[in-house]
Design brief:
The chain has 163 residues and is α+β, with helices and mostly antiparallel strands. Among the domains are: 35 residues, no CATH class; 41 residues, no CATH class; 36 residues, no CATH class. The chain contains four helices and five strands. The N and C termini lie far apart (72 Å).
């Protein structure tokens, strides 16, 4: 099967330089492969990430939870019933004083930090196909971060004579 780049001017020879082409390659590679992007190239999020850590921050740890093989949440009471093995007695533990309501907040994708953006532009851009350089490794819109000055303890010892 030959795959054509969206501009149809050249055949793909194993190189994919953008998300849209990658999606098409996966989808067209067989009838059972379906590509599902977590985020579209325009920034639309298809699979949101939720702040479960903050949502469950009021929960209490259960000692020895790794030994437990069966966990039951019989109702929304904040209690969990568990047993170590089949036939073992059920034990109950309170994991919540007050059950959280609703759903956790969505964590927006942070994007690439300035250091990574400049690394892609300065170090990897030269390896990109010229047609896709501006999409894959664009000039960052953020100032270039300065390299941190090593502290006195982190500086390598000076070469020279030992005393």
């Amino acid at each position: 099967m030959r795959l054509q780049h969206p501009d149809e001017s050249h055949k793909l020879k194993g190189s994919v330089y953008d998300v849209d082409t990658s999606t098409r390659v996966v989808s067209e590679s067989s009838k059972s492969n379906i590509s599902q992007l977590v985020m579209e190239s325009d920034g639309t999020v298809n699979v949101p990430v939720y702040d479960w850590v903050a949502f469950f921050s009021g929960s209490k740890a259960i000692k020895g939870i790794k030994k437990q093989h069966k966990l039951f949440f019989p109702s929304i009471t904040g209690m969990v019933q568990m047993r170590e093995s089949i036939g073992a007695p059920l034990t109950e533990h309170r994991v919540y004083g007050e059950i959280p309501e609703g759903f956790p907040d969505v964590i927006p994708p942070p994007g690439l930090d300035a250091k990574r953006q400049w690394y892609l532009h300065d170090e990897l851009r030269e390896f990109c196909d010229a047609r896709f350089m501006d999409e894959v490794c664009p000039l960052p819109a953020v100032p270039k971060p300065r390299a941190p000055t090593p502290s006195r303890d982190e500086q390598p010892p000076k070469k020279g004579k030992r005393k």
